[in-house]
Specification:
mainly alpha, coiled coil, 2 strands, IFT20 protein, FT20, cell projection, 87% helix
């Protein structure tokens, strides 16, 4: 016991296997435990980084998918707008054609009335000519 105290004063200690150590057995045990806890912490940190990495990858994929869908929606909207413009243009062309045909019909109606009047006048002239004979 006295030898142990003298060694202890010199900073030397015996462990449970009676090997000579520089650290006190309790300090050595705490150091080993701290080393294990640090190793576990590093492992958990690495696992956390892996999880975060895969989460970031997933979010990136979702962002790309969302961007793709947005582009499709914009394309569809633009297509609908152009179709609507085409229909509008077609409608205007047809309205113009209808107006043109109505004017033509009015010209033909006036021409028909004029011809009917001429025919009536000619028939009247023929009747008078026949009755004069």
């Amino acid at each position: 016991a006295m030898a142990q105290a003298a060694l202890g004063a010199a900073g030397l200690h015996f462990d449970e296997l009676n090997k000579l150590r520089v650290l006190e057995p309790e300090v050595a045990a705490q150091t080993a435990q701290l080393r294990e806890e640090c190793r576990a912490f590093v492992d958990k940190t690495a696992e956390f980084q892996k999880i975060v990495g895969s989460l970031i990858e997933l979010v990136d994929q979702l962002a790309k998918a969302a961007e793709s869908e947005k582009m499709k929606a914009i394309g569809a909207r633009n297509l609908l707008k152009s179709i609507a413009k085409q229909r509008e243009a077609q409608e205007q062309q047809l309205q113009a054609l209808i107006a043109e045909k109505k004017m033509q019909l009015e010209r033909y109606r006036v021409e028909y009335e004029t011809l009917c009047k001429i025919e009536a006048d000619q028939n009247e002239f023929i009747d008078q000519f026949i009755f004069q004979k």
